[in-house]
Design brief:
Layout lengths: L2 E3 L3 H12 L4 E3 L6 E5 L3 H11 L8 E3 L14 H10 L4 E6 L14 E5 L4 H10 L3 E2 L14 H8 L5 E3 L11 E4 L7 E4 L5 H8 L6 H7 L18 E4 L6 H5 L5 E7 L4 H4 L4 E5 L4 H16 L5 E4 L8 H12 L3
Parallel strand pairs: 1-8, 2-8, 4-6, 5-9, 11-14, 12-13, 12-14
Antiparallel strand pairs: 2-3, 3-7, 4-7, 5-6, 9-10
Bound molecules: threonylcarbamoyladenylate (TXA) and magnesium ion.
The site of magnesium ion (MG) has 3 residues, from loops.
């Protein structure tokens, strides 16, 4: 089993040294937990793919402690500065032309690298202590539900790794927004996430390509991992075309579970053992924070199927619906 390290100065040093020696460490972040390796170390990064069962055509995100280290891994442009000022450190990943220092294994052979400066204070300490950029995908077996607590990492990868850094439950709970900035005059959102497309286009003063447009219209998929079924529970998972009604919830079969956005108003309905919800109060942020945890909890229950409703597409609702749709995708 992996050992969970609390955030002490001594433990941060132990884990920084482990990373420098080419070992893997599961790290907290404000979005989801990641499985990290020194991004300059090809052999270490190869272990990430092996442990996750991740195909080698699905590139990794490189995490930096500050903007001053960006030059080591990617080519900058003026748009980077504007977005960095507004959203870094935070849940934004930028796809930029890569530098040679990053092994092509990390970027799946692409000429670009995805970079992010995370905000989580414990991860920041580790990045500063190890003085290396860290390549880190989410710390889950490929295709399964992302982890938002150290216990989630322990459950699904604990027998394959040695180190987990404790950082508490993730504040946002959904992965970073990925923006393609290869051409700064036509930025495109490749994956909706912790920062809304509206917030990004307000800073850029430019319209953005939507994810569906970006992935369908580019002749070759530039981010292959984004097109696949993902975030999937093992339990049969389906989406409703309309929101749940009290009657629909009361008529569930005993082996069917429902995942609602908000706690049902009727206390009798809310007390049904197969009725679950993402938010007590109807807050999109709370729902996003609870999504992966709730899916994991429901996936260990006795249900033959889980049915979920979508939420309103505004703000982080767009990213939350993206995860629900991909959880329900068949291929
Ligand atoms: O919030 C997050 O982004 C978390 C935390 C740990 O930082 N990381 C994360 O990594 O979600 P992962 O590996 O689960 O998803 C990264 C996705 C890949 O599936 C790929 O589609 C895209 O980022 N990506 C990585 N490098 C890329 C590149 N050079 N061009 C386009 N897309 C890229
Ligand atoms: Mg992932």
């Amino acid at each position: 089993m992996a050992k969970v390290y609390q955030e002490t100065a001594e433990n941060i040093q132990i884990l920084a040294k482990a990373l420098q020696k080419g070992e893997l460490v599961a790290i907290p972040s404000e979005t989801v937990y990641g499985l990290a390796a020194n991004a300059f170390d090809e052999a270490a990064c190869r272990k990430i793919f092996e442990i996750k069962g991740r195909p080698f055509n699905d590139p990794l995100i490189v995490h930096l402690d500050s903007l001053s280290t960006l030059d080591q891994v990617a080519e900058q442009n003026q748009t980077v500065e504007r977005l960095a000022k507004a959203f870094w450190p935070g849940p934004l990943t930028l796809v930029l032309p890569k530098k040679k220092s990053i092994p092509s294994l990390v970027t799946a052979g692409l000429a670009t690298v995805a970079v992010r400066i995370p905000e989580h204070p414990v991860l920041q300490k580790l990045l500063q202590a190890c003085q290396r950029p860290l390549a880190a995908p989410s710390a889950n077996p490929f295709g399964y539900i992302s982890p938002t607590t150290s216990a989630h990492v322990q459950e699904s990868l604990g027998n394959k790794i040695n180190y987990i850094l404790e950082g508490g439950p993730c504040r946002i709970g959904i992965e970073s927004t990925i923006v393609d900035l290869r051409d700064p005059s036509s930025p495109a959102i490749l994956r909706p996430g912790g920062i809304s497309d509206r917030a990004i286009s307000a800073i850029l003063d430019l319209p953005l390509d939507k994810p569906s447009v970006a992935s369908k219209e580019k002749s070759a998929p530039i981010a292959p991992g984004l097109l696949h079924k993902h975030y999937s529970p093992k339990t049969h998972f389906i989406l409703r075309s309309t929101p749940f009604t009290e009657t629909a919830l009361k008529n569930l079969q005993p082996k069917e579970a429902a995942l609602c956005f908000k706690k049902p108003d009727d206390p009798l309905t809310a007390s049904l053992e197969n009725v679950f919800w993402l938010s007590e109060s109807g807050s999109d942020e709370e729902a996003a924070r609870n999504l992966f945890s709730k899916l994991r909890q429901m996936d260990t229950g006795p249900w033959e199927s889980i049915e979920a409703e979508l939420i309103s597409e505004t703000g982080i609702g767009n990213a939350l619906n993206d995860r629900l749709r991909r959880a329900a995708a068949k291929s």
